């Protein structure tokens, strides 16, 4: 086992809630934990790509705050989505100019769902940006992404915590989920019902993989933030950071892992 690959981190999808991953990564770095491998779905794939490129959690958060994402989207004349993601390539190329997995400083695996077969596909070689766009292609919101003749959508549809690419390659595996649902006694309207149901389905496939993780970090109550609730970016970042700090304080094994990595 290569020691530089001893720690693996799997990052879930969750739209803007994925900003919490940056807070978690920052807290882990502060105790000396830097992953040898990363895997991610959707928002977790975006965070993973920028982090594996060599940007710090604070630098990535600054990019998110400065970027006006909606100017990189345009209407889709299609029955399969209301927005196209094509122009996002321009944005990603600003920060991933070499556009290959091989150019990253940390090995990364990105998860997407292949529509024709209804199967999870893991990308870890060759072109980076197209798989990255596919991984965060929310069904119904965005047109599916075409890669080598096949259409792909959001990886979270089937695997929202991609631990599988890290198994057998990492001694210690950390999973991070950014979609924790708080208990509620009533659901106020149809929109809230649909959103809660979607998150429940996403979390089902996350929790089915929870036992594969040596450490599972889940900032509490993030599901109250909408997928595109970018105005709450700072709150979400802080929630991830503070939650990870608390988790570390209650888990001697993780703190010990950090000290061994320094």
Automatic annotation (TrEMBL):
A motif (DGA/G) lies at residues 154-156. InterPro entries: Acyl_Trfase/lysoPLipase (IPR016035), NTE (IPR050301), PNPLA_dom (IPR002641). Keywords: Hydrolase, Lipid degradation, Lipid metabolism. GO terms for biological process: lipid catabolic process. Residues 9-167 form the PNPLA domain. It comes from the Bacteria. It comes from Echinicola pacifica. The active site is at 42 (nucleophile), 154 (proton acceptor). PROSITE patterns: PNPLA (PS51635). Transmembrane segments: none annotated. PANTHER family: NEUROPATHY TARGET ESTERASE/SWISS CHEESE D.MELANOGASTER, SLR0060 PROTEIN. A motif (GXGXXG) lies at residues 13-18. This is PNPLA domain-containing protein. GO terms for molecular function: hydrolase activity. A motif (GXSXG) lies at residues 40-44.
């Amino acid at each position: 086992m290569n020691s530089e690959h001893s720690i693996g981190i799997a990052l879930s999808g969750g739209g803007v809630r994925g900003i919490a991953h940056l807070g978690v990564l920052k807290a882990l770095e502060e105790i000396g934990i830097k992953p040898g491998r990363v895997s991610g779905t959707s928002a977790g794939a975006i965070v993973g790509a920028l982090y594996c490129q060599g940007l710090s959690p604070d630098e990535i958060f600054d990019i998110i705050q400065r970027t006006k994402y909606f100017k990189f989207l345009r209407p889709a004349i299609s029955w399969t989505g209301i927005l196209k993601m094509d122009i996002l390539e321009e944005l990603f190329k600003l920060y991933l100019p070499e556009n290959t997995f091989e150019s990253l400083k940390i090995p990364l695996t990105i998860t997407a769902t292949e529509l024709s077969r209804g199967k999870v596909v893991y990308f870890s070689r060759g072109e980076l940006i197209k798989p990255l766009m596919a991984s965060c292609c929310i069904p119904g919101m965005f047109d599916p992404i075409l890669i080598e003749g096949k259409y792909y959508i959001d990886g979270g549809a089937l695997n929202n915590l991609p631990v599988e690419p890290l198994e057998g390659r990492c001694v210690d595996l950390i999973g991070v989920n950014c979609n924790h649902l708080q208990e509620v006694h009533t659901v106020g309207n149809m929109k809230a019902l649909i959103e809660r149901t979607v998150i429940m389905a996403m979390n089902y496939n996350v929790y089915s993989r929870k036992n594969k993780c040596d450490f599972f970090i889940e900032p509490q109550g993030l599901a109250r933030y909408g997928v595109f609730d970018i105005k709450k970016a700072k709150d979400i970042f802080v929630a991830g950071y503070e939650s990870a700090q608390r988790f570390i304080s209650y888990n001697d094994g993780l703190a010990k892992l950090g000290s061994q990595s320094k």
